[in-house]
Predict the 3D structure of the following.
Amino acid sequence: MTATTALPHGFRMRSAAGLTRLRSSAPSTVVATCFIAVVLLLAFLVPLLPGTDSTSQDLAASLTPPFADAAHPLGTDQLGRDVLSRLGLATQVSLLIAVGAVAISAAIGLVIGLIAGYRGGRIDTLLMGVGDVQLAIPVVLLLIVLVATLGSSPGLLIVLLGLTNWVTYGRVVRALVLSLREQEFVAAAVSAGASTTWILRRHLLRNVMPQVLILSAFQIGVVITIESSLSFIGLGVQPPTPSLGLMINEGQRYLQSEPWLTIVPAVAVFLLIAGAQFLSQASERPRRR
């Protein structure tokens, strides 16, 4: 008797189903893990390496190609600054801005969505009306106007990006709450005399948080794209602090002779965005079963 025939029929069916789910979900999970691991190594390990300095200039060693000098594995830029050091710090700055902005957006959208969805009526109309007005204004153009008026710094970018990207969270949370408030467990809590705050915190919040986390993973890539675009046109992170968009902008002047100055930060942007997208897909897949 073979090992396969010795297994109960039901067990074989469950094992086959488990293998199917594993094969369908593994690629995005593995890719997300690899991309995020590379990004985290760049952002938090490279700046700790001995001898790394993202601002030190050496004009005699400017435009050194990658792998030509052990002291500069990814080469140097037009001012002789180490590309690997600048790439690590720029990735760290982009990650901190993205995570901070997403946290602000998620918090604002979560609160507004919970209130609008549960209370309904005029409050729902007013809050969603504010969101509709903001959606009617292109986010990038709005940020360009705000940054040009208020100035630019990492802290200010976090606040502005957070305040201009909450609408998606608010609309998603509102839609979920509109469905959840009709469920029996919410009706039972209302009948028992539970307060609105208690229902929102104990029943509705825990049911919408998984979707908010999935959306947050997706929005990290969106925010990184916007931040890199602003830095590319000179309205994002300002020198001497390196940023991925600024590195791409500086490198395009030498695109024909030293293309690595543009390719290296562009690959870092791709890894950040793709890692966030694959992470959101990997997080969402188990909930679809």
Q: What stands out?
A: The chain has eleven helices and no strands. Residues 82-288 form a domain with the MetI-like fold fold (CATH 1.10.3720.10).
